[in-house]
UniProtKB/TrEMBL annotation:
Cellular component GO terms, alphabetical: membrane
UniProt protein name: AI-2E family transporter
TM regions (residue ranges): 40-63
Protein family membership: Belongs to the autoinducer-2 exporter (AI-2E) (TC 2.A.86) family.
Organism taxonomic ancestry: Bacteria, Pseudomonadati, Pseudomonadota, Alphaproteobacteria, Hyphomicrobiales
Length: 79
């Protein structure tokens, strides 16, 4: 029984701290380090709600930054 608890905690930790940020990073075209750092900061400041809103806020914040600094959008065709 104790081994099942340890295995569950290990799998849950890997899923929460590694797999979820990687999937979210691919979905919103942000580096995984930015997603993880953003979730840590927003979680420390605003708790569970901050963690839930961290990735969408970061994705929305990158749109004007990419526009201002001339980075091409993923949706724009080349040329």
């Amino acid at each position: 029984m104790f081994y099942v608890l340890i295995l569950y905690l290990l799998v849950q930790g890997l899923e929460s701290y590694l797999l979820t940020p990687l999937i979210q990073a691919k979905a919103v075209s942000l580096p995984p380090a930015v997603v993880i750092l953003n979730q840590l900061v927003m979680g420390a400041l605003f708790g569970i709600l901050g963690i839930a809103l961290a990735t969408p806020i970061a994705a929305a914040a990158t749109i004007p930054l990419r526009h201002w600094f001339g980075a091409p959008d993923e949706d724009d065709p080349p040329g």
